[in-house]
Amino acid sequence: MDPIITSALTAFVTASATKGMNAPMQTLDDLWYLAFGDISQLANMKRAKNEINTAQYKDSILRKTLEIKPENLQEPPMSIVGPALEASKYYIEEEELREMFANVIAASMDKTKSGDVHHSFVEIIKQLSPRDAHNISLFKNRSAYPVVKYILQNKMDKKFIVIAPLVFLSNFVDGIIDEKDSASISNLIRLGLLEHSIDTLTSVEEYAFYEKESYLDSLISGYDKEVDEVVTRRNSLSVTPLGNLFMKVCL
To answer: Which domain of life is it from (predicted)?
Structure first.
């Protein structure tokens, strides 16, 4: 590497560290040396962990490949396996996403599944978080889920403002609504895996949790209950054709 660049970076890190940026700049320093040279203790530990994750990833691909019948085994299309391997090295620490890449690679080597492997799958996985991976996996068991929109409506003139446009419950055990799920579902919709509809599910009981008085009261906190009320608009989420194909291959 050009010694001028190395010296400049070293000077930058040293100067920054003296200005209260020790932790983030040390991380940058370690990552730099991990990629280009002298391995510090922290970088060495990261490398060891990375090697374990990489070995697990390789074993996962191998196991999935061995499950393919010999007569169905084929050379994987480079347009699929190349981008998948390249992208997956940046997600090697996140098991849920790593397994998705492994499934794509294995499916591309199976004559009975390769036709289902869409070229967009690699790019889609790159844009998922572990929470996104969890939420899309919920749709393997059922094709649609209830979601709601909360509006704050004036009791007199019925004018309203939207206070929560998309609310989804992913934690059915604890029954906790997390705002991060709203962002996650929005991302899955953006990627074309899910579709948001104003249609409601057949069973109104599906919406019971969203309409608990205690929860609605928490939403109206800070507003005048004599004037305003929270109204629930029942909607639904369903899987798109692309989403079904994605789950078939990647999950």
So the answer is: Bacteria
**What token pair was written down for 27?**
């991380």
Q: Could you tell me which residues are beta bridge partners of residue 237?
A: 145, 196
Residue 165 lies in a domain: yes
- Residue-wise pLDDT tens digits, 72-125: 999 999 999 999 999 999 999 999 999 999 999 999 999 999 999 999 999 999
Do the domain assignments include residue 249?
no
Whether residue 228 lies inside any domain: the answer is yes
Domain coverage including residue 162: 134-240
Strands in the chain per DSSP E: 144-154, 160-167, 194-197, 228-239
Choose among 186, 191, 185, 184: nearest CA to 120: 191
Tell me the whole-structure pTM to 2 decimals: 0.78
Q: What is the pLDDT of residue 4?
A: 43
> Who's near 238: CB < 8 A, 6+ residues apart?
143, 144, 194, 195, 197
Q: What is the pLDDT of residues 166-217, one digit of tens each?
A: 999 887 666 678 889 999 999 999 999 999 999 999 888 889 888 887 778 7
Residue 68: closest CA among 111, 119, 116:
111
Helix extents (H) in 154-195: 179-190
Identity of the residue numbered 189: I
Provide the 3-class DSSP secondary structure of residue 143.
coil
